[in-house]
Amino acid sequence: MVKTRSSISPSHSVKVAADKKKMENVSDDGDRDDSDRSGGSGGSSDGSLAEDLPEDYDSEDLEVEVRNDLKEWDLYFKPGEKIQGKVMLFPNEDNIVVKNINSKLTKDQRKLFRDTCFGYFLDSHPVGFQSQLVHNALHREVYQKNEKEMWFKFADENFRFSLAEFAVVSGLLCVGDADLSKYTHRENAFVDRYFCDQTVTVSAVEHRFMYSDFKSDEYAVKMAVLYLVTNLW
């Protein structure tokens, strides 16, 4: 994180989301394959999604109420106040996402993937992750008015996490927010082919990537990129 006194922010309440949804295999020509429905219902075989989520699980159930008496730079949670958490998404310590992409894509498709801004992730190594550290850090989040930033109090100092810090950590070229409104009601052949019958969720993307028979290199790489950004972090 970058220590700075400029800028002001509150991030919204912390939400943890995971979707456990039954899915069907789909080949690249759009035909459903009902022979194996187990691939994406509970996430990766390495346990990347919790297995005991109810079918009607809603991330809104875990939304934390914000106190009405908060002033700028106050802690969201009073000292000693703790919120019990449950890890729904486990980190890819074994780099299973990168391994799956490398094994699923053909040589030509991997070359196309390397030409994207995410290409260097194919060479990434397993990264240790301390979920308790993140959980404790979230207890130290402070209230401020910039929704695009999160600030945390450690000792007597406030520290910022924003797009700039994310860019430093990830190595991605982050230049600001994209206007997604122009895509809202626009037809998309890729989405129509693979997600016409369901909501695009973490587990849905994983299942489509792992079990689709891609005949188009372009679509294979698009799905690989979507799989990376939805399942790696």
Describe this structure as you would to a colleague:
The protein has 233 residues and is of the alpha+beta class. It has one domain. Helices cover 28% and strands 8% of the residues. It contains 7 helices and 6 strands, in the order E-E-E-H-H-H-E-E-E-H-H-H-H. It has a 4-stranded antiparallel β-sheet with strand order 1-6-5-4. Helix 2 crosses helix 7 (217-231) and helix 6 packs antiparallel against helix 7 (217-231). The chain is elongated and about 55 Å long. The two termini are 17 Å apart. Mean pLDDT is 76; it is low at 1-26, 30-51 and 55-60. Residues 138-231 form the DUF1985 domain. Residues 1-12 have a biased composition (Polar residues). InterPro entries: DUF1985 (IPR015410).
